[in-house]
């Protein structure tokens, strides 16, 4: 098989670190290692967003492409992008006891942004 890299089989060597663990211990070790891998991804997802990501979230929430622009712009203007625009719409809807759709429409009309600022200022 010309052109293929040969991989040294070091399975037995690597296996030594877990060979004496019980099934339950292996399961715990697996989830510990999975957490080490996934935690940085979760941190990035919590801390970083872009207008494109926020538009995508809003589209999946049922808003049209024409509706998402003023929602994303409204969040950017108020420094709320990091909170997630879909989350802002959701939290306003929950706070006001109205549908997500209605909350989004009100935000598009310029209403409830002060409430959104209060919600996220207080960290509720």
Explain what the structure shows.
With 124 residues, this protein is mainly α. 68% of the residues lie in helices and 0% in strands. Helix 4 crosses helix 6 and helix 5 crosses helix 6. The radius of gyration is 23 Å and the shape is elongated. The model has no long low-confidence stretch (mean pLDDT 91).
The shape is: elongated
Helix content bin: 55-70%
Mean pLDDT: 91
How many domain modules? 2
CATH architecture group name of the largest domain: Orthogonal Bundle
Low-confidence stretches: none
Give the CATH topology of the largest domain: Helicase, Ruva Protein, domain 3
Helix-strand string: HHHHHHH
CATH superfamily of the largest domain: Ornithine 4,5 aminomutase S component, alpha subunit-like
Indicate the CATH class of the largest domain: Mainly Alpha
Number of helices: 7
State the major sheet: none
Gyration radius over CA = 23 Å
């Amino acid at each position: 098989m010309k052109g293929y890299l040969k991989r040294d089989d070091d399975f037995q060597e690597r296996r030594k670190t877990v060979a004496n663990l019980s099934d339950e211990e292996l399961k715990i070790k697996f989830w510990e290692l999975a957490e080490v891998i996934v935690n940085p991804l979760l941190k990035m997802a919590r801390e970083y967003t872009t207008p494109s990501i926020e538009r995508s979230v809003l589209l999946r929430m049922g808003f049209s492409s024409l509706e998402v622009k003023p929602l994303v712009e409204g969040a950017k203007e108020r420094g709320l992008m990091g909170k997630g625009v879909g989350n802002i719409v959701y939290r306003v809807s929950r706070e006001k006891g109205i549908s997500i759709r209605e909350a989004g429409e009100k935000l598009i009309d310029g209403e409830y942004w002060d409430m959104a600022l209060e919600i996220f200022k207080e960290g509720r």
